[in-house]
């Protein structure tokens, strides 16, 4: 459990990251694509969305242009 911004409720809420996530290529680097849920059983709206996690070191290299 953690807190994230829910795009449906448009506020920061308690969310859950689902356990299974794929490693996918994004702009030439490997990232974790996680499914996040604002679960109804925890008082949420039930909306689910995806996030990507990138290593901080990769964000600041000259080889990768982050836009």
Looking at the chains present, what oligomeric state does this protein adopt?
single chain
Helix content: under 10%
Content of β-strand: over 45%
Radius of gyration: 14 Å
Number of helices: 1
H/E element sequence: EEEEEH
Overall residue-averaged pLDDT value: 87
Instruction: Tell me the span between the first and last alpha carbons.
Output: 29 Å
- DSSP strand count: 5
> Structural class per helix/strand content?
mainly beta
**Runs with pLDDT <50, length 5+?**
none
What summary fits the major beta sheet?
Answer: 5 strands, antiparallel
Give the overall form.
elongated
Describe the structure using short key phrases.
single chain; 67 residues; five-stranded antiparallel β-sheet
How would you characterize the overall build of this protein?
By secondary structure, the chain is mainly beta. Helices cover 6% and strands 46% of the residues. The chain has 1 helix and 5 strands; from the N terminus they run βββββα. The protein has one helix spanning 56-59, and strands at 2-6, 11-17, 23-26, 29-37, 48-53. Strands 1, 2, 3, 4 and 5 form a 5-stranded antiparallel β-sheet that branches. 4% of the residues are buried. The mean pLDDT is 87.
List the helices and strands and how they pair.
Layout: E1 2-6, E2 11-17, E3 23-26, E4 29-37, E5 48-53, H1 56-59
Antiparallel strand pairs: 1-2, 2-4, 3-4, 4-5
Question: In summary, what is this structure?
Answer:
The protein has one helix at 56-59; strands spanning 2-6, 11-17, 23-26, 29-37, 48-53.
